[in-house]
Structures are given as structure tokens and as C-alpha cells.
Amino acid sequence: MASSTRRTGCSRNRQHPYNNEENATQSSQWDMENLENWTGARFRDELRKLGINIPKSWSKTVLKQLYLDNKERLCTDEREGATVAADDHIRQPRECSDHQGIHVDSNLGYNRSVRPNMPNKLDKQGRSRVFSDGKEVCNNYNNVRGCFRTTCNLLHACSTCRSTGHPAPTCTGNRQNHHNVHVPQKYSQTYKNSTSSKDFTQTKPDNKS
Known about the structure:
rod-shaped
């Protein structure tokens, strides 16, 4: 009886290792980092970030292996601050006894809108994104107020004709014929463009009294 009471007293006084806040935080971090503690829903969420939507009938073992084989495809889009897939090539799960013959269809719903090389159509201000030669054009530069950044990493070019000489509000043409100039009928203009020089000649008709 005495030994039983001692054991009861010891168990009553013994504290759980995760009772204090610090240990509880460590426990939650450990749970998050240890894949063995992930649920099937957690694996599905992580795979969805990679653009892989898989059937609900697949086992946790398959989801885990699929995640391990594809997790290096994850990267962070610094512009959006979001975790996205670095490419659209889904790596098939390696063969093992639990999922032999399972193949992930590349057309199962890869979300191409989050790819870094195919970014979202709108910027943070809700304006359409424009690209020229693989670089994003600065929307602020093409605003009436102009770009306010001291150092701007975006391309300062016209969003209409892609020329770097002027913003969109002062553009006089379009992307195809932005060199065209409206000329009054009584003048004939001839332009000669070359890489070294630009000649301009202008003639007026004879005035008749």
C-alpha cells in the first residue's frame, strides 16, 4: 500500500515535459519539421503549393513520398512573398512497395499563374503587368506622376510601344508604328534613319500670289 501511494504521489508531482510555454513551442516546431507527424491533409496542402492536386483516395505513404521527391521544386517569389513551384515538371514518386505503378498526371491541375516566369497578370496596385524583352515594365513610370523610387529595378519604358525614351502618357503611337508622325498635307517629309545619323528634309510648295 505504501509503495502504491508513493508511486501515485510521484506521478502526481511529475510535470509533463511540454507543460511550460518554451517546451510547448519546441514541441510544435518539432511536430512541424517531422514529416512522420504530418497528416494526409498537410501533405496535400504542401503538394498543392507545388501545383500537384492528387486524388483523396491516395494513402499518406504515397503523399509523403511524392512530397519528398518534389519538395526541392519549392522556391520563394520575393516579389509576392509567396511559396511557389520553381518549374512545372512534376517528379513522379520513386518505386516502392506501397505505390508501385502510381503515376501523377502532369495535367492534374498545375497552377501556372504562380510560376515566377509566368507571373500574375496584375501588380499589387491592381494594374496590368507589361513585359519587354523578359523584363517587367515599371507601371509607376508610365503613370502621370512618374516613378517615385530612388532605385527602381523595373524597366523604365513605355508600356504602349516599349520604347525607353518616353512614358505611356506622352506616347504618340503604338507598338507597331510608334515611329509614324502626323504630317500636314502641305508638307512632304522624308526620313532617313540609320544607326549613325538621322537626316530630316522638309520642303514647302511654292507660294503662288
